Amino acid sequence: MVSKQEQTAGAGSLPDPIRNYVGGEWIESGGDESHPVVNPATNDELGEVPFSTGEDVDLAVRAAAEAFDNWRRTPAVDRVQYLFDLKYELEDRQEDIAQALTREHGKTLAEARGEIRRGIENVEVAAGVPNMLREQSGLVEDVARDVDEYAVRQPLGVFGAITPFNFPAMIPLWFLPYAVATGNTFVLKPSEKVPLSSQLIYEAVDGVDFPDGVVNLVNGSAETVNALLEHPDVEGVSFVGSSHVAKYVYETAAQRGKRVQAQGGAKNYAVVTESAELDDAVPNVIGSVYGNAGQRCLANDVVVGVGDVYDDLKAELVAATEDLAVGDGLDETTDVGPVITPDSRERILDVIDEALDAGAEVVVDGRNYDHPELDGTFVGPTLLEGVTADMAIAQDEIFGPVLCLAKTADLDEAIEMVNSTRYGNASTIYTERGTDARKYRYEVDAGNIGVNVGVCAPMGFFHFGGRKESFFGDLHAQGEDAVNFYTDKTIQIERWYS
Ligand code: NAD
User: Fold this and answer.
1) In testing the pocket of ligand 1, which one of 111, 118, 166, 340 has its CB within 8 Å of the most ligand atoms?
2) CATH code of the domain made up of 269-451
3) Any idea where the domains of the chain sit in the sequence?
4) What would the pLDDT profile of 146-194 be if each residue is shown by its tens digit?
5) What is the reported pLDDT for 138?
6) Atom of ligand 1 nearest to the CA of 189
7) How far is CA 78 from CA 75, 471, 485, in A?
8) Which residue's CA is the nearest one to ligand 1's atom 39?
9) Cα 200 to chain centroid, rounded
């Protein structure tokens, strides 16, 4: 076991070594396997992430299970005091987390800071849980003579969360605050590609002094995930990642009788109509497609120009794409950072080449982008046109800085294209006509709809939508859905005789 002082890195430096956090202590993983953590902008090694074994997971789940009884008996108003403290601990460390996040992920510092803010927002929303519990357990008097009935929300036990690489600080905070505010205990398994942000978030957790075992962390990969999914003491699992793993996690956990919410991949379209204000729409589209180097489940990577707007839209998008600065996210002048790994870069280049073979044309070509000083995994912003619904690039997630332009004659044809994919995460319409916006909301089969908003990321007090192969489960992350996911409603029917 290691003390808090030994684990805590100095300001701006990275946590080393990377450890698990179990029962209120930083501990080494018992496994032999590990994997390098690499800065994708420079190819520098930042650390070595341990791949935790089934025994490591068992330790964490047992610590969480042991902590549950006392934690659920702690009044909700007292439990959320820890979240108020966590908010301030995170805010104190915000800049250190942002720097580490940019180094391990590659996104720009502005994006990293914005991401942490959105994570802290969930801590703030979850601190309102006592009120949310009250609102949802209404009493009905006299369901029969002298008989009253009501529902009591109760926590269930140990919950796990498995998170992806693209939002290393925000996504763990979609789950942790709600799980513990509702009286459950928690085990996080972050992405092995970006474990450093979680180390720093857990330093904030450690600073709060939650009762031992309430909040735990195990690093690792698929084996670690499987141990969590199979552990008999895990009551429920939250997952965010690619759709094929989301489906696997959903099925595996559900077969074992666990609650599960699994958010998958995406294929999001933006539709720009003739009434759109292009001066506002174009920078918004550019932010949606190229922000986070396109590695965002809400990125609208296909942009459909309806009717006569197409030529002006294309001209403005091309100019804006050519204007983007590629580089290290730590450099404040960078607009687009690297993609996460060399494999990811190769995959993106293959997707572009396949689209060109299928008849798309390249208008801005970032395929051979070579940074003059950095040995990073960069893909330059790339714009293709002539993309049609039958192409793989119009159906599959790109997850890179690639904008696909398509053209349709009218809004009906555009909506048909939007709905042609197997995903249903998000979509945006750019319009100044209310009737078009309403038609879009009504007919597009996606869980998050933007009107003149290219990244329609819901605030913490709303659930995060997602349909079709973008979501497996019933109750989504964040807001009231999170409270429902993390609690069960016991029905109480009462009659008193004297
Ligand atoms: P991923 O599916 O590769 O990994 C996600 C998590 O699953 C990681 O913790 C990883 O260790 C684990 N994992 C990977 N393979 C596994 C396996 N075979 N068995 C068990 N566990 C496994 O996803 P990623 O590449 O880290 O993240 C990108 C994906 O996440 C994209 O598809 C993106 O759209 C999606 N995403 C979705 C949302 C959403 O809200 N719907 C949000 C963010 C990211």
Assistant:
1) 166
2) 3.40.309.10
3) 4-264+470-494, 269-451
4) 999 999 999 999 999 999 999 999 999 999 999 999 999 999 999 999 9
5) 80
6) 9
7) 5, 33, 21
8) 263
9) 18
Distance, CA of 390 to CA of 376 (rounded, Å) = 33
Q: CATH assignment of 4-264+470-494? A: 3.40.605.10
Residue with tokens 């933007």: 450
Q: For the whole prediction, is pTM greater than 0.90?
A: yes
Q: State how far the Cα of 155 lies from the Cα of 185, in Å rounded to an integer.
A: 9
Nearest CA to ligand 1 atom 19: 222
Which SS3 state, helix, strand or coil, does residue 159 take?
strand
Atom of ligand 1 lying closest to residue 191 CA: 9
Interval between CA 434 and ligand 1 midpoint (Å): 36
Confidence of residue 282 (pLDDT cuts 50, 70, 90): very high
Short-list 415, 381, 377, CA closest to 286: 381
- Atom in ligand 1 nearest the alpha carbon of residue 477: 40
Q: How far apart are CA 239 and CA 250, in angstroms?
A: 8
Which residue's CA is the nearest one to ligand 1's atom 9? Answer: 191
Which run of H or of E encompasses 212? none
Quote helix, strand, coil % in the chain, to nearest 5: 40, 20, 35
> Ligand 1 pocket: which of 175, 191, 192, 301 to mutate (most atoms <8 Å of CB)?
191
